[in-house]
Amino acid sequence: MRRVLAFVVLSFLGSTSAAGAGASVSGDGGTGHGGNVSVGIVVTAPGSWTPGQSGDDAARPIVHYVVSWSVDPTPAQIGSLNGLCVLPGGTAQQPIFGFLYHLVGTDPSGKIVDDRFECVAFTNGDATVRPPEPPVPAVPTFGEAWNRAQLPAPTVTLDPATRGITGLDTRISTDGPVIVTIAATIRGYTITGTATLDHYEISVDGQPATNAGTGHYTFETKGNHTIAISAIWHGTAALTGPDLPGGLPAVDLGRAAITSTRTYPVNEVRSVLQP
Questions:
Q1: Fewer CB in 10 Å around end: N or C, the chain?
Q2: Bridge-based pairing state of the strands 217-219 and 7-9
């Protein structure tokens, strides 16, 4: 796939970086034309489609757990076993008593994917004090899943390649794969799926990103300009692990924006009339 991107810049807004706030991965590398390209990733979890405000989304676990317990509010009666459970490993003469907790895990759509009870032993055998809640499964976060996907950064191809001229067209293009296989293992959990390219976005000098189309850029002022091209990906994957009975066959991973940013110098050429 190859797309040519266009825009007309009427004023110089300064050399500021565009998309990439809250990026969880960054780096830089050579462009082959003497400039530098920085790369960043921003993750947006399902149900939260506000680009640039994704820091919390990247940290959200793919499965959200709630731990609760139920205790009869009426005064305790002799012989009541409300909330009491017995752990394996004890004997009939010396059982190991504990408190019963309820763990419920939901996927991004709100569907319950894990529903179970867990017995936690009383601390030092003291049945008068409720023991600490059990730890929830450490399933991968959306950010971890996308980071392990190893999505390719969009290329930034410019013509003229090394510097532009005010008043003349500058062609900006990008290309890359449209489907990437996701295969990762994180803390014993396996993520297997596919990331599909949705579209490209472009921003010049920090202006709001727009869906990339076909055309030209005309720089009206000289100096260093910032060009950012973002590849917007959507992902779906299966998640399996030791704490997920049956696993999750198809999880919406939300979106990931991979942005390449390059500084592009522009010169000014003036004509001089000779007598």
A1: C
A2: parallel
Same structural domain, 119 and 93: yes
If DSSP codes are grouped into helix, strand and coil, which group holds residue 57? helix
What tokens were used for 185? 């293992």
pTM above threshold 0.85: no
Task: Kindly report the length of the chain.
Answer: 275
Which residues form the domain of 164? 2-62+140-267
Type of residue at 26: S
Q: Do residues 118 and 239 share a domain? A: no
Which amino acid is present at 251?
V
Residues 168 and 262 in one domain: yes
| Structural contact between residues 40 and 28, judged by C-beta atoms closer than 8 angstroms | no
Strand-pair category, 248-267 with 164-165: parallel
Q: What is the pLDDT of residues 91-129, one digit of tens each?
A: 888 888 999 999 999 888 888 888 889 999 998 888 888
CA–CA gap between residue 134 and residue 137 (Å, rounded) = 9
Burial of 257 (0-12, 13-18, 19+ CB in 10 A): buried
Backbone phi and psi for residue 83, each to the nearest 5 degrees, phi listed first: 80, -5
* 203 beta partners: 228
* Omega before residue 46 within 30° of 0, cis: no
Does residue 17 lie within any of the structural domains?
yes
Structure tokens at 2: 């190859």
Residues 6+ apart with CB under 8 A from 56: none
Task: Give how many domains the chain has, as a whole number.
Answer: 2
Whole-number Å distance between alpha carbons of 202 and 109: 30
